[in-house]
Structure prediction request, 463 residues.
Amino acid sequence: MLYSMENDTIAAIATAVSPAGIGIIRVSGEKAIEIAEKIFQSVRPDFLVREAKSHTIHYGKIVWGEIVYDEVLLSVMRAPNTYTKEDIVEINCHGGPFVLKRILELVYECGARPAGPGEFTKRAFLNGRIDLSQAEAVMDVIHAENEYALQNGVGQLGGSISHIIKDLRKQLIYEIAFIESALDDPEHISLDGYSHGLQGKVDHLIEKISELLRGADNGRIMKEGVRTAIVGKPNVGKSSLLNAMLGEERAIVTSIAGTTRDTLEESIYFHGITLHLIDTAGIRETEDIVEKIGVDKAKESVKKADLILFVLDGSEPLSAEDYEILSLVKDYRTIILWNKSDKETYQPSAEFSKNETCIPVVEISAKHMEGMQQLETLMKDMFYSGEIQMNSQVYITNARHKTALEQAKKSLELVQQSIDDGMPEDFYSVDLMDAYESLGSIIGEALEDDLAEQIFEKFCMGK
Prediction:
């Protein structure tokens, strides 16, 4: 039976509310066709909306009384072959905020109510057209900032996560059912030697879940981009590097040390992924209160970064401050940039390229854009050499999914422990069921109403 809230019909603007060429008002529910007929006047005198075939588009006007509000295209889509599995009409009108608002008010006057955030997608989920992981993938597609995030989101929308989770749950429920059947009917179903066979199956399940979890960090980078902190002591060329990578004068560059006193963030699209560049204050000991705050922010940026670009001034000897910063960044994914190769006093990076941390070193001139191609190649290799690739691999990009997988893994590890300890088979069943339910929460098979509300509240009104 289809989901319904007193068989009500919902409506919302499904496009951005700003001056635009086209705007769309979406209406879903059992009265959608009836409402459209009250306000739509076709150019064909004999046309009736209620007689329109599914998935057809009709040209006409929105009329209320003697007032014509707009010329529109009316899309008619009949249940169950629609986004929500309910009757849907979409009014394609001009995209001015006032005309959109006025037509939507007419739709309300004729019997619809305002849709809540994500309510169209929520109905698609509750009516069984998509599962919860696919519903959440809708937002991933909408907010994708790069090619990898888009492709992964589309894959999840098509069920890439669902297929894996359903297969894992199928294996779990088989074992749970077998144990329960054997405990209920020991005369006909024997559990002799069962624990040995279960051990291998549980090991396999844990490895499959671990494989998904191993890709979670890459999934986050794919979805959110690479947080890239540019660090170094004052006046080494950090802001010049930011400007060079952006291709514009975004940061103030002077010969005065300590010019940058706060973090400056900009984003660029880089080989299919988004880089969030963070230009930080020069790290040094200072008595200046404002500059000290900037230095503290720079150190905090290091802890949160996915990649650190550590800039050194190659035109002067290394200082104690340089080595102090090296100790700060050496345990993170870092590239050392030996800057100012255009200076006469520049010294090659051979000394520092042998640093004990084996951090890669690139010689550059941020001022003259020299060495930038080598830097790009190195950054690309760091994130694309077998780590993030646009192929059939499924990446976990949702924090809720990651938590559920971790819980399922812990439950299966308890099964392993029970087998090792020689515990009775009913102990296995409890933890196997916990794993089954944890995985079920990913696709919405085991979901509390309040969690569903929290998930769909993040959607926009028209989705």
